[in-house]
Structure formats: structure tokens, C-alpha cells
Sequence to fold (146 residues):
Amino acid sequence: MAAILGENEIVSTREFDFARERVFEAWVNPELLKRWWGPNGFTNTFHECEIKPVGNWRFTMHGPNGVDYENHNVFEEIVPLERIVLRHTSNPEFQLTAIFEDLDGRSRLTFRQLFKDKKTFEAVKAYAVDGNEQNLDRLSLVLLEG
Fold:
């Protein structure tokens, strides 16, 4: 599904032929998360991954061009099977909310990325919209692999 651009926000929605529990597990299991997080061609090295409220998630994204991107997130809220909210504290700063919905054995994931200001939003939206879609494509593949 296509992304919607709001006020300093990118909203992507994807439906999966998998139960909400399985999609949620791919977010809270670090071994699964590191396999799909990021756009195509990126890999991750997790340094710290405390998936709990106020837990730190520090990792390096390794780009296909050989460039490393250091990332720091703080989990602000985790409501099992419903919602995960994290704050990306490294540049660019944003809040990410993942909302998990049950669709009678299938599921819908809404991925809301809210940037702290218009300037940041305008600078990243050109690559972030497609990057988020690639991220969700990679999640689909991890779910298919089991």
C-alpha cells in the first residue's frame, strides 16, 4: 500500500497474510528484527537491544555502499500485540509508532514516522517513503521464511 504524507509524518500501511502475533514477534525478537530492519541491501549489527519501555536499541546499519550509519532508539511504549512506540534519537530525529491490527487471522501494520520539525521532514521524505516500503517488504520476506 502507498504511504500517506501528513504534517511532518509518513504513514505506511501493509496487510500481511500472517496473524498479528507473528508480525508483532518479528518486531520484538531481536534475531528477527535484525534480519529485516532497514531498506534493501542494508544489514545490521545490534550493540544493545532492550525491547522494553525506556529500553535502548543501539545498532549500526551497514549500507550497500560500504557506509555505516549509527542509530540509537529508545522504546517509549510497548503494548503487546497492539503498539510499539520508539524515539529515534540520532539524526534525523523522529518518533516511530507501529500499530498492529488483527484481521481475522491476517493482520495490518501501520507504520507512523513523525518528524520533530518540517525542515527535517522535508529533508528525508524523498528517501524515507521508499525506504519504509522496502523495510516492510523485507519484513514480509522474514515472515514468509518463518
About this structure: The domain at 4-145 is CATH 3.30.530.20 (Alpha-D-Glucose-1,6-Bisphosphate; Chain A, domain 4).
